[in-house]
User: Fold this.
Amino acid sequence: MFREPETWVAVAFVLFVGLGIYLKVPAMLAKMLDERADKIGKELAEAKKLREEAQALLAEYQKKRAEAEKDAANIVAQAKIEAEAYSVETRKKLAETIERRTKQAAQKIAQAEAAAIKEVRTTATEAAIAAASKLVGEAVQGAKGTKLIDDSIAAVKSRLN
Assistant:
């Protein structure tokens, strides 16, 4: 039996197992496996905690993004309202400016007409006075005629102007 290699393999195996038990190898292996399992459990717990924090941050940023989009939409709406109000105000001011300039042009035209009428009357008066003095001068000669001409000229000037 000691010549069979299987016997020596069996003896070596029994010694190996006996030595392992004597040195408490299974307890050491169990302890190492338990430590490894605890370490993995802690890593999993930390990973779960980090994942929850990441999800909370994601939710917070999504909420902030939604608020920012809402604020941007409000800003755009307010800008449209202000632009419309500015447009209405600009149109109103333009209409007022056009109306004011139209009135100014009408006043200038009226003033020009009045000046032209006055100039025509002045010219007509001067022409009438000149014609009247020539006719009266030819009709009346002497000192009495000169006095009559001067009085007539003064009366025409006061009545026409």
Remarks:
- The helical segments are 5-22, 25-139, 143-160.
- The mean pLDDT is 87.
